[in-house]
Amino acid sequence: MAQQQHSSRSILIITIIVAVVLIIVIWPLSMIGKGSVTTAAGDEPEVRIQPVAKLELAKAAAVKSDGKPRDGATVYNSVCMACHASGAAGAPKAGDKAAWAPRLAAGTAALVKNAINGKNAMPAKGGNPDLSEAEVKAAVEHLIGLAK
Ligand code: HEC
């Protein structure tokens, strides 16, 4: 019994050693082609944070005004979709004709005004003060188009 316990423990230890050796050998190999083979230790943190930093930049670029007005679909996809795709916070879902019918009856101008100024859980400009009124209007028209 004691002998068997001993041998199963050494098998476990050998397995761990083999796994560690494999990781040490294979991990640097997997870095080949990612440009960090020679200075794997030095560059490692940078390499790891890179994708996150890129994502944040891409997100900011999609939302930030660069002088050119974005079209309704772009604004909808970068800002409004957060609530209007899923119906989060009680938002009328994009394309849900029943939810939009009574709102459409109020007229485009009223909807644009509410989208710019906010209404109940709907934040002003969808929570993005960076948007111009024309961009919000374009996004509202995009939503109206989806609801027709
Ligand atoms: C944080 C979630 C959220 C975001 C982001 C959001 N909305 Fe809304 N929206 C709502 C909610 C909730 C309502 C329902 C408000 C109500 O009628 O009580 C609503 C309602 C609306 C309405 C109908 C207003 C009315 O008069 O009935 C329009 C139009 C609208 N949103 C447009 C937009 C546009 C355009 C954007 C993007 C620029 C946007 N929303 C982003 C939550 C959101």
List the helices and strands and how they pair.
Layout: H1 2-31, H2 40-63, H3 72-84, H4 97-105, H5 108-117, H6 133-147
Helix pairs in contact: 3-6, 5-6
Write up this protein:
The protein has helices at 2-31, 40-63, 72-84, 97-105, 108-117, 133-147. It is mainly alpha-helical and 148 residues long. The protein folds into two domains: 2-61, no CATH class; 65-147, Cytochrome Bc1 Complex, Chain D, domain 2, CATH 1.10.760.10. It is elongated and about 80 Å long. The chain binds heme C. Heme C is lined by residues 75, 79-80, 82-84, 88-92, 103, 106, 110-111, 114-115, 119-123, 125-127, 131, 136, 139-140, 143.
Question: How would you concisely characterize the structure shown here?
Answer:
The chain is mostly helical and 148 residues long. The chain contains six helices and no strands.
Using DSSP, what is the number of strands?
0
Could you spell the SSE succession in H and E letters? Answer: HHHHHH
Instruction: Give the overall pLDDT as a whole number.
Output: 81
For the record, the CATH class of the largest domain is Mainly Alpha
User: What profile does the largest beta sheet have?
Assistant: none
- List cofactors, ions and other ligands: heme C
The tally of helices reads: 6
In whole angstroms, the N-to-C terminal distance is: 77 Å
CATH level 4 superfamily of the largest domain: Cytochrome c-like domain
Instruction: Estimate the helix proportion, in percent.
Output: 55-70%
Strand content: under 5%
Bulk shape: elongated
Structural class: mainly alpha
Q: Per CATH, which architecture of the largest domain?
A: Orthogonal Bundle
Compute the CA-based radius of gyration. Answer: 27 Å
Provide the CATH topology of the largest domain: Cytochrome Bc1 Complex, Chain D, domain 2
Low-confidence stretches: 53-63
Total of domains:
2
